[in-house]
Amino acid sequence: MGKLIEFFIHNKALNYTLLIFLAYLGFNAYVNIPKEMFPNVELEKISVRGAYSGSSATIIDKMAVRDIEDALSNINGIDKAETTIIPGSFIIILTLNEHSNKINVLSKVKDSIVASKQYLPSDMLEPTAKLLDKSKSLIKLSVSSSTLSRGDLTKISQDIRSKIARIKHISDVSIRGDSNEEVSIKINSKAVSAYELKPQSVLEAISNLSYIFPIGDIEQKDNFVFISTVNGKTSTKEWESSILNIEGRYIELGDIAKVQRHYPLTNTISTFNNKETLTLVISKDDTGNSIELSKYIQNYVKKISKNYPGTEFNFYQDSSRPIKDRLNTVISNLMFGLVLVFLSISILINLRLAFIVALGIPFSFIIGLLFIYYMGYSINIVSLLGALIVIGIVVDDAIVVGENIQRHIDEGMDAKEAAITGVKEMMLPVTLATVTTAAAFLPIFLLTGEIALFLVLVPIVVVMILFGSLIESFFFLPLHAEEMLKKSKSFINWEPLQESYNRVLSFHIKYKKTFVVLFLVLIPIFTVFTAKSMKFQFFPNFDGNNLYVSGKLNINTSLEETLKIVKEIEYELMQHSEEFSLKSTSAVSGYRRSLAGETELNDNVFFITMELYDRADTNFINKYLNPILNFSIFTEDVGFNDPEKIRLKQTFELSPRAREIIEKYRAKYNMIELGVMEDKPGLIRSDIQINLSGSNDAQLESSVKKLSLALSKIEGVKNYSDNIRYGKMEYKIKINPYGENLGLSEAAIARILSAYFLEKKQSTTFNNDGVMEIKTEDLYKDDLDTLLNFELTLEDGRFVKLTDIADIVMVRDYEKIDKLNGNIVKTLYANVDKRKITPNEILNQVEPILEDISKQGIDVNLLGEKEKNKNLQEDMKRTVLVAIFLILITLLLIFSKLKYALMVMSVIPLSILGALLGHKLMGMPLTMPSIIGILGLAGVVVNDGIIMLDFLHGTHNSESFFKRAKLRLRPILITSVTTFLGLFTLIFYATGQAVILQPIALSIGFGLLWGTFLNLIYLPTLYAVVNGIKPVKI
After folding, report:
1. Of the residues 185, 215, 533, 971, which has the maximum number of CB atoms within 10 A of its CB?
2. What is the DSSP code string of 335-398?
3. What's the pLDDT at 1032?
4. Name one GO molecular function term (predicted).
């Protein structure tokens, strides 16, 4: 390695060429690397979907789902199976283990479905299985018009969807509110009865109205001909004029049916700013650059919009906007940290060395960026904050190497010789110090589940940039040092500070045993006391850009009625635009994300998104320095007053007000559920989730009600809901003895009734865009009297009333059935205001109720944040143990005796107090990122411990002990100050989603400050006790 270093110092042209080449590669990587808000935190999942029209949730569970679940339960690689059954359909979401082969598991799932098909109803289509896409919402486009029909808008939307879907990296474009054109034939059952016709005969005649398949061809010489039909009629009038041959009688279709060619209403209807629209939801794949894609799509639509006169296009919920803002914020924080580090080194050492160190930082980051890019990761909040965390640490290598070179130059050595000698001397300790820091972060890879996917970029970024720092410090910095460093004096006179340190250390050595006992007893006591006095929540609270209103009406509410209510609520919210700094509102009727974070499709649900302007900058650094440091002041024509940044309040302050405004609609429309939600990181859908399972439904419902009542009385619970909802009334037809005596059967009656009350596809035809379906249903099917007065035609031509030959049993099934790993669960969800109370505190309050429920034989399973905390505790036990061993092994490479390695490591648990006090000072609770920060703190404080003990190692007399300890004051203070300043902006000026990782900076920054004191005072005192060092008179 030494010869390689000399080679690079002697070959300047090669050295600088490599630097330029690295700069080019780094620029290319930055341009092409995907940029997004958060990394993908979802494990691989497989969906199994099936449908059986007209059946209740319970019937589908019995007839299909249970058999499929049993078949799937034997497949290795599936972590859990979550089933949702609603009338007519079901979906099973299979979450795979982290290391499962998704293709193999999918193949086994499909085989299991095939194997279970023998138990499914014969007329049920085979369920389908597929891997769920990990596409991410990019932007939404509303298409509306005051002059065009819904059909015209649908055609335009479908045309634009087709164009956008062809753009590279666009994974999906779905349309909310669109439908395919169809021919709808509504049969007049009264007219059919008057003509004394059989329903089956009418449907058979209708099915023969169109034939779209080829008839054949004629290959006559010189005249090849294809033969086909005209594929049915074209206009509504032509359809109604069609002559049907029914049971030997010729009847016009218009005499017994009403025909309509139209675009039917779909399951969802979208609005934008209270105006009904069609909405294109555009998603991107994992490798797409959100910022560039969004910009390209907006320009593209603007360009082609002239082809659609009378159509209005509006983009909203553009994910690239907050991504760009957050990236700019973090980049400016990086630059500000770099400036602070440069200034501190200039003051603490000298200007030339500060310039060399500062020059090396970008190249360390470039090397790290190349690794991240070619490993397939993206630039996002987590990866950038990982870079922000390491900026203060990465300069340590350059400072130690550069200072050593400067020392040799000051002693009169030639610059080139000093560069070579200085690097060689520090090669081993710098390498081992870097390995120690990396060893503290590497065990994060041992975390499991979605937490690991969220945080894995932190150790990757830290380790890769530290590796880049080693390369820069060993191969490029020496050349810069040779050309720039000269004999110089430090800006600060260190002698007075060193003498003061000597006196303080001498006092501690005088009472060394007493102080060591105090350190080892009092600090752990204070640490435990401080930790117990703090609250814990999984993630810190942060300010987002959206508020969401999720609502559910009575089960019998139609989609049109839901839309009307949604427009009323949306209009009300728009009246408070200034109060909320409201940018736009968008709503979907027929779809919602529930308060539990689950997707729900039904006519009686809705979801309103309030898109807010960005929060105004509240301090000098964010308002004036950041635009300069991230260069947006030069690249964007907004100056220091961004028109998008006008919001004065955070979302957590606005959500109670939104809840207050809409609350009156709960009683007005007798809503089942209505609540306001804020943005969340994505790992936890609901703060509290309590799953209850057992065989007694009444007992389960009673238990859920008890828990709901308890939650309603706890201050800080923002909203709560459960999955115990009864669906639509179900009329079950039970044939009676009289009906059986007439030769009727349950199947025969069902077939006759389904012809009237079930919309069925009878045939197909063509329109200009492709295949168009022909569907039938009864004109009066939505009138209950039609069923109760229905008359069936017997074989002999007689008519008999349905209620005479069958009993009608009225039952009400559950609206949906939720299952976990094959067991039906009743679930209670709750979200809390964590500024008032934490989920753990709430669960502690309801613990007596949960214990009472368990005694009744009901299985209680706590999910939500509680589950994540439990998983984190289990992971951290393993992670901490691995980190300790890795650090110990590294220390034993430096110190031959175990006692010295353990002395350095003893600083780690004692430094935790600083991290906790830092959280107290900033008024923040302990969080999962705080724990990760404490893990990283271990490697940082050990580095300073190595610097101190490596110099003290081998001293056995007081004079050399104090002399060497005094010489370590400067490098320890310099590395600690630069590390803390590198974290300065993240500690004190974190905004938006950056707040999620602020606790990591708090743990490392304040833990390091306290750790510096321990390494300067406690560690030498402990060494003096072990080696019998006595105090000296000063």
Report:
1. 185
2. HHHHHHHHHHHHHHT-HHHHHHHHHHHHHHHHHHHHHHHHTT--B-HHHHHHHHHHHHHHHHHH
3. 65
4. xenobiotic transmembrane transporter activity
Taken in order 628, 395, 404, 950, is the CA torsion positive or negative?
positive
Mean pLDDT of 961-968: 82
Is there a contact between 935 and 440 (Cβ–Cβ < 8 Å)? Answer: yes
Beta bridge partners of 262: 182
Is pLDDT above 60 for 1034? no
Q: At what angle do helices 495-510 and 512-532 cross, to 10 degrees?
A: 100
Environment class of 699 (CB within 10 Å of its CB; exposed 0-12, middle 13-18, buried 19+): middle
Rounded to whole angstroms, the Cα distance separating 177 from 277 reads 8
Which residue in this structure is represented by tokens 């760009």? Answer: 324
Domains of the chain: 2-32+323-539+869-1027 (1.20.1640.10), 43-133 (3.30.70.1430), 182-262+728-764+774-814 (3.30.2090.10)
Residue 759 near residue 776, CB atoms below 8 Å: yes
* Arithmetic mean of pLDDT over the chain: 85
Q: How far is CA 430 from CA 397, 936, 946, in A?
A: 6, 18, 10
Looking at residue 997, what DSSP letter applies? G
The pair phi, psi for residue 166, each rounded to 5°, is: -80, -10
| Tens digits of residue pLDDT in 717-743 | 888 888 888 877 888 888 999 988 888
622: tokens are 């964010």
Q: What is the pLDDT of residue 491?
A: 67
Q: How many angstroms separate the CA atoms of 77 and 70, rounded?
A: 15
pLDDT at 438 over 80: yes
The answer to whether 689 and 863 are in contact (CB under 8 A) is yes
Tokens representing 917? 């006090």
Q: Which residue has the tokens 């002059």?
A: 147
The SS3 assignment for 778 reads strand
Ramachandran angles phi, psi of 3, nearest 5° = -70, -35
Q: Which residues pair with 217 in a beta bridge?
A: 226
Q: Which of 860, 856, 854 is nearest to 828 (CA)?
A: 860
Phi, psi of 782, rounded to the nearest 5 degrees: -90, 15
CA angle 759, 763, 769 (to 5 degrees): 100
Rg (CA), the chain: 36
| Helix 958-967, helix 928-952: angle, nearest 10 | 130
How many CB atoms are closer than 10 A to CB 173?
Answer: 22
Q: What is the DSSP string of 748-760?
A: HHHHHHHHHHS-E
384: which 2 tokens? Answer: 């950038």
Strand partners, 806: 735
159 burial type by CB count under 10 A (0-12 exposed, 13-18 middle, 19+ buried): middle
Q: Which amino acid belongs to residue 1006?
A: F
Which two tokens mark 96? 């795979």
Positions of E strands within 161-248: 170-176, 182-187, 216-220, 223-227, 243-246
Token code pair at residue 1011: 């750790």
How far apart (Å, rounded) are the C-alpha atoms in residues 238 and 249? 20
What one-character DSSP code corresponds to residue 619? S
The DSSP bridge partners found for residue 319 are: none
Distance of CA 366 to the CA centre of its chain: 27
β-bridge partners, 860: 692
Contact by Cβ (8 Å): 316, 142: yes
Residues 6+ apart with CB under 8 A from 985: 332, 333, 336, 337, 388, 621
- Cα three-residue angle 34-36-41, rounded to 5 degrees: 105
B/e letters for 71-88, b = 16+ CB within 10 Å, e = fewer, are bbeebebbbebbbbbbbe
Quote the CA–CA distance of 542 and 469 in Å, as a whole number.
Answer: 32
pTM for the model = 0.79
Q: How far apart are CA 624 and CA 630, in angstroms?
A: 11
- Among 843, 594, 825, smallest CA distance to 710 is for 843
Position 19: which residue type? L
